[in-house]
Design brief:
Helix content is 45%, strand content 14%. By secondary structure, it is α+β, with helices and mostly antiparallel strands. A hairpin with a 6-residue loop joins strand 5 and strand 6. 15% of the residues are buried.
Length: 360
């Protein structure tokens, strides 16, 4: 799956609504005069050169990302320190103008009443001041659909110990990649201080299909070994199975471990095969993994606080709604076209074919 396209996967543009299938283009080219076809081949060679230049462009973009990652890191380190309670921000650092201030002013009377009630409660019970921002990353995981789908109830106590998530880019001269680092405080589940996931990328046109190049793409990923404490591995579960002896008829109970659903399976990914031959389930699992890795890198890590508060979720939902509205309009237009065509059937006209899925 091309989860990290530099330009996004726009698909084949077809403003005229003609030549829906790739074979139509080959047919068109075969109908050209020989001299024109020769010139088209020359243009294709130029297009390949453009793709190679574009690949170099994205290599420089990757280097630029690495450079600016170093500038962002001190801010992300400060974020981690505030989240974990290592540092208490100053009053000046906590000043923030809210868009809801007018609403808050209108509700001032309600606040005063609430303050009186809170004061009464504080007199009855000692005030508790939580350290940092409790369950910061766990709240994000539970709020984002893509992550909550992987999250199991037995994962939550472990993710309460997650201090930070960082993105590290490959160094100059190394193959293009990025690494997700999950930093944990000491806990009773595993010995690792950091769990890593490396995503390997490619930014060059495919020799067999150079015109499909649209920017860097993730081609493989590699997890890490988790050093679980005894009996704390949530990625497996122990089951007991009864076995009956065929001859004697005696029954014995066998205990064995089987895989268990868990977010921490994220660090033991399906491997991409060199020949590209994978079953459909494995392909889907790997494609989803690439998408999640890209989402961590592009959205979660840079904008963590906005996912914690839910503001980024609102932005994501608005974007999805806009896309849905556009899709609905297109579908309605197609239905209108179908209505216009009813009763005017041309048997020579090619019937529409189902869209062919792009192999990721």
């Amino acid at each position: 799956m091309d989860a990290s396209k530099g330009k996004g996967d726009q698909g084949m543009q077809n403003p005229g609504g003609q030549m829906d299938r790739p074979v139509s283009f080959h047919f068109l080219e075969s109908m050209l005069p020989k001299a024109v076809k020769r010139r088209v081949h020359a243009l294709k060679r130029l297009q390949v050169q453009c793709a190679n230049i574009e690949a170099k462009f994205y290599e420089e973009v990757h280097e630029l990302e690495r450079k600016y990652a170093a500038l962002y890191q001190p801010l992300f380190d400060k974020r981690r320190d505030v989240v974990t309670g290592t540092v208490e921000p100053t009053d000046e650092e906590c000043e923030w103008h809210s868009d809801r201030e007018e609403e808050e002013e209108l509700a001032e009377e309600v606040k005063e009443k609430a303050a009186i009630e809170d004061a009464k409660k504080e007199e009855a019970t000692p005030e508790e001041d939580p350290k940092g921002i409790p369950e910061f990353w766990l709240t994000i995981f539970k709020s984002v659909d893509m992550l909550s789908d992987m999250l199991q109830e037995h994962d939550e106590p472990i993710l309460k110990h997650l201090k930070d998530i960082q993105v590290k880019f490959s160094e100059p001269g190394q193959p293009m990649s990025f690494t997700l680092e999950f930093h944990f405080e000491p806990n009773g589940y595993f010995n690792n201080a950091v769990l890593t996931k490396v995503y390997k990328m490619k930014s060059e046109p495919d020799a067999s299909d150079p015109f499909s190049f649209e920017g860097p793409e993730i081609i493989d990923c590699e997890g890490c070994q988790i050093d679980w404490h005894k009996g704390k591995d949530v990625t497996v579960k122990t089951i007991k199975k009864k076995q009956k002896h065929k001859g004697r008829g005696t029954v014995r109970t066998v205990t064995k471990q089987v895989p268990n659903d868990s977010f921490f399976n994220f660090f033991n990914p399906v491997k991409a095969l060199p020949d590209g031959e994978m079953d459909e389930d494995s392909e889907f699992t790997l494609a989803t993994d690439f998408e999640i890795g890209h989402f961590f890198r592009e959205r979660i890590v840079p904008r963590a606080v906005l996912y914690f508060t839910g503001e980024a979720l609102e932005d994501d939902e608005s974007f999805e709604e806009e896309e849905l509205e556009e899709g609905d309009e297109e579908e309605q237009d197609e239905e209108a076209d179908d209505d216009d065509d009813e009763g005017d059937f041309d048997p020579k006209k090619e019937q529409p074919q189902p869209a062919e899925c792009k192999q990721q």
